[in-house]
Structures are given as structure tokens and as C-alpha cells.
């Protein structure tokens, strides 16, 4: 005999109970869907992005500020496609590439992603070491603490717990808004310089390519799709996941623009000689306030670098697992997925050891950004092909929006390659 609904449930069904329960249900769905987009965009405000933005403002004033705002729709369009693919197929980026075009292309894509992740990882860890040097903290205590903190968090938590911690760390980036405000930018100078685009200057084009490559990165595209799968979300969360992505893209670029503004206001035209995180922090400190400027800069940098360190390690391990057909999840116990957690630990420790050997962070960060700019066309092409072929018919990329995405990808991909080659060869 079928169970009869209770009076309370009957009233709910017929709409006689106030909308408290539906509202609570919507909030739970919102909180469940929000996270991966914000995390990956907070990770996008990583050490390399901070350094590139600071160099942009220091060397070219406000002339690269407009680019930060133009990048918002590109970032959203690219990440939104990963949202569709992740939620509607339940598979990661490399996994879909392997199933559609074979293991060879999947391994090639995974190796490209691994290269990008390794460069980004070295940048993050070097950034944290450089930030510590502002307060006379030796590198090795920072490296050991970083490795122990991240390994403890990953080995003892689920995806959701890791996500919550990274979201809190990412909020440290709000310090850059405070820094920009206290730099007292000149609105007239900003308006005068923002539309000045010296397209014939190789140094400008090199920095433009670095900005592109530190905004749309292979590992950001990969991470969000795999994180949505790892979190167990599905097509019902598509609308909220898109909102999550849009909020994250705007948040990321507002913070990046704040760094450009702070650097332009304080160092504009005088920053060509900045060769380290310590020098950037000291420059902000000297012009904003010796303690205030350095402290705010370090807080903002550390938040993004910590989030990115976690994200790039997860991206690299997920990618190799998908390419080999051995996908594992943070929801699994370390004893049930030893290679997954072992590879994560090896990558993190190797990055710390390499940084401990000494690396020029400024050159590394810009070079990684330019490398990413060269990789953008390939990553976006595969993303477009997947979105047009593996999604359900009603969610495939087509119509006016499909044309807009295609044109945007072609323009930005071409611009990235042009700026990178012109900057390197010019």
C-alpha cells in the first residue's frame, strides 16, 4: 500500500505553506553549485598575474588597464563551455578528448597542461618565498610550512572542505582593492592613458601577451570542468554554475585591474627595473607606506598564490589520470587512490625543491604567461569542437552566441600569438 503524504507535506504540495521551504531549497542548490568558478577565478589572481599586472602598471601606466576589462567576456565564454561540458557529460576535459580523438591527443593535451601547471606552480611557490623575504623570513621555513599545510588539507579533507578553505584564502585578494584606493590614482591621467595602445612597441606587446596568458590559462579551463565532476554536480546546476563563473571572472579582473591601477599610480613609468617580488613590495611600501604597502601587497599575493598552488597541482594530477583512464577523486581515501595523492605530493614537493634552488621570478612569470598565450588557440579550438559535438543537442554551441564565441576566440587567440611572437622576436 502506498504511503500517504502527511498533512504538512500535502499542504506543501498544494502551495498552502509559505515559500520558506522552496527558498531554503534554492539556497541549498545555490551553495552547492557555487564554488568551482569562484575558486578557479581566485586562483587566476595568482602570483604570476599579480607580477604581470604590477609590471604592466609600472612600465606602461594605465595603458594595459582596458585589456583587463576586455578579458572578462573571453574568460566567461571559455569557462562557461567547460561548465556545460562538465555538468552535461560528467567527464573531464582530457577524458572527453581521449574518448573522442584517442589517447595520443589526450596525452599530448595532458603534457601541454602539465607544462603549464609546472610553470604556474613554480611561480606561486616563488611568489610566496619572495613575499616572505619582505619580512626577512628565510625560504626553507616557508617551503616546508607550505608543503605540510597543503598536504594536510588535501589528505584529510574532501573536495568540499578543500573548496571552502580555498575560497577563504582567495578572499585575501580583496586587499588589492584597498591598495589601489590608497594609491590615490589620478582619474584624468587614467582617462588620458587608457586608450593609448602602442602596438608597435615590442615590450608593450610582450606584456600584453603575458596578461592574456595569465588570464586564460590551460589549467583554469581544465580545473573547473574536473572540479564540477568531482563535486558531483549535474545539468540541474547549469544556471547557477554559470552565475558562479560570471561572478568569478568579474571578481578576478577587478582585482587585477586594481593592481594595475596601484602600480600605475605609484610606479607608472618607473618600474622597468623591478626584478623580484621583494622589489615590487618595497616599491609599493615606499610610495604607499613602508609597513602598510608591503603588508597589503603580501596578503593579497599570498591568498591568490595559495589557491593557485592547490588548483594547479589538482589540475595536473587529474589531467594525467584522465589521459591514462585512471581518474580519481578527492572524495576517495588516500589508501584507495595512492597514485592520485602520491602524484599530488610529488609534484608539490618537487616544485618546492626547485624553488629552493633559486629562480628569477619576474622573468619566469612573464615567460609562463607568454607560453600560455601561445597555447590558448589550441586549448580553445579543442574546447569549441567538444562543445559542438559531445553536448546534448539543446546545449551545443550554435546560433548567434556560437558565432560570437567563435569570433571572440579567434580574435583573442590570434592576438595572443601575435603579441607573444612580436614581443619575443621584436
Fold and architecture overview:
This protein has 426 residues and is mainly alpha-helical. The protein has a single domain (35-425), classed as Amino acid/polyamine transporter I. The protein is 77% helix and 0% strand. It has 19 helices and no strands. It has helices at 7-13, 20-33, 36-44, 47-60, 65-89, 93-101, 103-133, 139-156, 159-170, 175-182, 187-194, 202-213, 218-230, 238-267, 277-288, 292-324, 338-356, 361-389, 399-425. Helix 16 crosses helix 17. The protein is globular.
> Which topology does CATH recognise?
Amino acid/polyamine transporter I
Structural class comes to mainly alpha
What CATH architecture would you give? Up-down Bundle
Shape: globular
What's the CATH class, please?
Mainly Alpha
Report the portion of residues in β strands.
under 5%
Domain count: 1
By CATH, the superfamily comes out as Amino acid/polyamine transporter I
- How far apart are the termini? 81 Å
Work out the helicity level. over 70%
Distinct helical segment count: 19
Topology, number of strands = 0
What integer value in Å does the Rg equal?
22 Å
Described by strand count, sense and barrel closure, the largest sheet is: none
Order of helices and strands: HHHHHHHHHHHHHHHHHHH
Low-confidence stretches: 1-20
Rounded average pLDDT:
82
Amino acid at each position: 500500500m502506498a504511503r500517504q503524504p502527511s498533512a504538512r507535506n500535502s499542504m506543501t504540495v498544494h502551495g498552502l505553506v509559505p515559500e520558506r521551504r522552496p527558498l531554503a531549497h534554492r539556497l541549498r542548490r545555490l551553495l552547492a553549485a557555487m564554488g568551482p568558478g569562484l575558486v578557479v577565478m581566485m586562483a587566476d589572481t595568482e602570483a604570476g598575474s599579480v607580477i604581470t599586472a604590477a609590471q604592466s602598471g609600472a612600465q606602461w601606466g594605465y595603458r594595459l588597464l582596458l585589456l583587463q576589462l576586455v578579458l572578462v567576456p573571453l574568460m566567461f565564454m571559455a569557462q562557461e563551455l567547460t561548465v556545460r561540458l562538465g555538468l552535461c557529460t560528467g567527464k573531464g576535459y582530457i577524458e572527453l578528448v581521449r574518448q573522442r580523438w584517442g589517447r595520443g591527443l589526450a596525452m599530448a593535451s595532458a603534457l601541454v597542461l602539465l607544462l603549464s601547471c609546472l610553470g604556474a606552480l613554480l611561480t606561486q611557490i616563488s611568489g610566496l618565498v619572495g613575499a616572505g623575504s619582505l619580512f626577512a623570513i628565510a625560504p626553507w621555513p616557508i617551503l616546508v610550512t607550505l608543503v605540510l599545510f597543503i598536504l594536510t588539507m588535501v589528505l584529510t579533507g574532501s573536495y568540499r572542505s578543500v573548496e571552502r578553505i580555498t575560497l577563504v584564502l582567495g578572499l585575501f585578494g580583496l586587499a588589492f582593492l584597498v591598495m589601489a584606493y590608497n594609491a590615490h590614482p589620478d582619474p584624468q591621467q587614467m582617462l588620458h592613458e587608457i586608450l593609448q595602445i602602442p602596438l608597435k612597441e615590442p615590450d608593450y606587446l610582450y606584456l600584453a601577451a603575458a596578461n592574456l596568458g595569465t588570464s586564460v590559462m590551460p589549467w583554469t579551463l581544465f580545473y573547473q570542468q574536473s572540479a564540477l565532476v568531482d563535486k558531483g554536480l549535474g545539468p540541474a546546476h547549469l544556471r547557477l554554475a554559470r552565475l558562479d563563473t560570471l561572478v568569478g571572472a568579474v571578481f578576478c579582473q577587478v582585482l587585477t585591474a586594481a593592481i594595475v591601477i596601484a602600480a600605475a599610480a605609484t610606479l607608472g613609468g618607473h618600474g622597468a627595473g623591478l626584478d623580484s617580488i621583494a622589489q615590487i613590495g618595497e616599491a609599493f611600501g615606499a610610495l604607499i607606506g613602508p609597513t602598510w604597502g608591503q603588508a597589503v601587497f603580501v596578503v593579497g599575493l599570498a591568498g591568490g598564490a595559495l589557491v593557485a598552488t592547490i588548483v594547479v597541482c589538482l589540475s595536473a594530477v587529474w589531467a594525467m589520470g584522465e589521459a591514462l583512464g585512471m581518474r580519481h577523486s578527492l572524495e576517495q581515501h588516500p589508501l584507495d587512490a595512492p597514485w592520485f595523492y602520491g602524484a599530488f605530493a610529488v609534484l608539490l614537493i618537487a616544485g618546492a625543491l626547485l624553488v629552493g634552488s633559486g629562480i628569477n621570478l619576474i622573468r619566469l612569470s612573464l615567460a609562463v604567461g607568454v607560453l600560455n598565450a601561445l597555447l590558448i588557440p589550441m586549448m580553445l579550438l579543442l574546447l569549441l569542437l567538444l562543445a559542438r559535438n559531445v553536448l546534448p543537442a539543446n546545449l551545443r554551441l550554435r546560433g548567434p552566441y556560437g558565432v560570437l564565441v567563435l569570433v571572440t576566440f579567434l580574435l583573442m587567440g590570434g592576438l595572443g600569438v601575435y603579441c607573444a611572437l612580436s614581443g619575443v622576436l621584436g
